Each structure stands twice: as C-alpha cells, then as structure tokens.
C-alpha cells in the first residue's frame, strides 16, 4: 500500500499547540496592508483556534503527519 501524501498547503497553514489544539493564522495578511488599520494588522499575528469538528477532521485527513 502506498504512503499517504501530506497536502502541503494545509501543512503550512495549520499547526498543533503543546496542549493538542489545532490553530491557524488568518489569511490576507500580506496583500494591501497599507489600507488596513493598525488593530487589524496586529490581529494577523495572532493564532486562532480551529473549533469546528469537521474542519479538524479535514485537516487531519489532508495532513496526517502534522506534528501533534
């Protein structure tokens, strides 16, 4: 049976914390930044927890070897 391949775009966008939560960064942080407010630009640095069970399941399927 062949190895399962990791979906590289998914592996770059998501990671697991030390406690096992799946987190992601917000999109749109590199394009047209001059127009955006300081508060919005600061929020791009934050990691946001993925809470939807369906999304977590999909990420796990796309990136099975993501560090847990």
What is the helical fraction, as a range of percent?
A: 25-40%
Average pLDDT confidence is: 92
CATH class, anyone? Few Secondary Structures
User: What is the number of helices?
Assistant: 3
Give a short synopsis of this structure:
This protein has about 70 residues and is an alpha+beta fold. The protein has helices at about 10-15, 40-45, 55-60, and strands at about 15, 20-25, 50.
Secondary structure layout plus pairing:
Elements: H1 8-13, E1 14-16, E2 22-24, H2 38-43, E3 48-49, H3 53-62
Antiparallel strand pairs: 1-2, 2-3
Characterization of the model:
With 68 residues, the protein is an alpha+beta fold. The two termini are 24 Å apart. It has a single domain, classed as Factor Xa Inhibitor. The chain is elongated and about 50 Å long. The chain has three helices and three strands. It has a three-stranded antiparallel β-sheet with strand order 1-2-3.
Annotation keywords:
single chain; 68 residues; Factor Xa Inhibitor; three-stranded antiparallel sheet; 3 helices; elongated
């Amino acid at each position: 049976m062949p190895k399962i391949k990791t979906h590289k775009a998914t592996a770059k966008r998501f990671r697991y914390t030390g406690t096992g939560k799946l987190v992601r960064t917000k999109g749109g942080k590199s394009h047209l930044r001059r127009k955006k407010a300081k508060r919005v630009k600061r929020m791009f640095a934050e990691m946001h927890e993925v809470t939807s069970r369906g999304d977590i399941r999909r990420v796990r399927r796309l990136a099975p070897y993501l560090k847990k």
